[in-house]
Amino acid sequence: MTDNTPMLDEEGYLLNLDDWTPELANQLASELEIELTDAHWEIIHLLRDFYQAFEVSPAMRPLVKAVSKKLGAEKGRSIYLMSLFPGSPPKLAAKIAGLPKPANCI
What we know:
Radius of gyration: 13 Å
Shape: globular
């Protein structure tokens, strides 16, 4: 039996970043009871671009700053990110985006 399921660490983060696909993002989001909308995808793509540029998943403050810079001040607010990714936006969004856990997130 071949299992094409990507490997995740004990916290549910993707071990091989190259295994990420939009389909996997939908699957991971579903397991977290999040239905991805265009607003979610905006953040997911921004996170993946951020990771490609800096090789790190942003914690809340840098995430808010990056969102504000790229998508505008209205979206660059922690309350907006919490509405999309309840609890810990940097952790949930990174997980769905197939990125490592942000360094400063518990």
